[in-house]
Design goal:
flat; 94 residues; mainly alpha; 2 helices
Length: 94
């Protein structure tokens, strides 16, 4: 795996901080958001700029950018073992 540059580390931290701000300021359903519409739009634009620059850096290094996935989404790097296969090994039939 390629070494991450200082710029990539900064972008990652910026994305995490912006995400934390969004999570912490998001009100419960039905309540007014404490941030103005313009600030919300600016945050969206910041996320877009960060994502675009991360993609540029990955392309320059020849690596695929990290892709988010849902928890219940099937992944290629994970092998599911059925519970019925767990336990003592079965004895071969003679």
């Amino acid at each position: 795996m390629a070494e991450r540059s200082k710029e990539q580390e900064v972008l990652t931290i910026m994305r995490q901080i912006l995400g934390a701000v969004v999570r912490e300021t998001t009100p419960p359903a039905g309540m007014r958001h404490p941030l103005s519409s313009q600030t919300i739009e600016d945050i969206k634009n910041c996320f877009a700029l960060i994502a675009a620059r991360e993609k540029e850096l990955c392309d320059a290094q020849g690596i695929a950018p990290a892709k988010p996935y849902y928890v219940d989404e099937a992944r290629e790097d994970v092998k599911v073992v059925p519970i019925s296969n767990i336990g003592k090994p079965k004895k071969p039939a003679d």
